[in-house]
Automatic annotation (TrEMBL):
It holds the Pfam family RbsD_FucU. Signal peptide: none annotated. It comes from the Bacteria. It comes from Oceanomicrobium pacificus. SUPFAM superfamilies: RbsD-like. The lineage of its organism: Bacteria, Pseudomonadati, Pseudomonadota, Alphaproteobacteria, Rhodobacterales. InterPro entries: RbsD-like_sf (IPR023750), RbsD/FucU_mutarotase (IPR050443), RbsD_FucU (IPR007721). This is Ribose ABC transporter.
């Protein structure tokens, strides 16, 4: 156990987050996501919601400020303008927790899978709400954030 960390941040997830570099993508996926076939690196958080995982991750991981879309979700098939409740909750978490809040951008399902296959890692949650998947791009940890001087 460590102090000051969200208990949802398992040792494997902490290792993955620490190993990521600026510009690396992290997928937080729902229970329906084909994580085993997509992931280069996989961490399981069974029984945890995707929104809970995102909240815990954004407490440590800065969003990339050098891109227009540091947070992407899978668009609803047949209705790309729809915003499922879980996606609205993702946006609320980003607005409240991220050090550099940004609007979420929806991408086509198959484009989402392509990005997921190239992502640094996938966090497979127990999320049961449909479209409970998000990709976040890691930003720079500045020296004033505890990095080396």
């Amino acid at each position: 156990m460590l102090r000051g960390l969200d208990p949802l941040l398992s040792p494997d997830l902490l290792h993955m987050l620490a190993a990521m570099g600026h510009g690396d993508d992290l997928v937080i996926a729902d229970a329906n996501f084909p994580a085993e076939s997509c992931a280069r690196r996989l961490v399981r958080l069974d029984g945890v919601t995707a929104t809970g995982a995102l909240n815990a991750v954004l407490g440590l991981l800065p969003l990339d400020t050098f891109v227009d879309d540091p947070a992407r979700v899978m668009g609803v098939v047949g209705d790309p303008e729809a915003v499922p409740p879980v996606v609205a909750e993702f946006q609320t978490i980003i607005d409240q927790v991220a050090d550099a809040p940004a609007p979420i951008r929806a991408v086509d399902r198959f484009d989402f899978y392509d990005v997921a296959r190239a992502a640094f890692g996938v966090v497979l949650t127990g999320e049961t709400r449909l479209y409970g998947n998000i990709i976040v791009k890691k930003g720079v940890v500045a020296p004033s954030d505890g990095g080396a001087q």
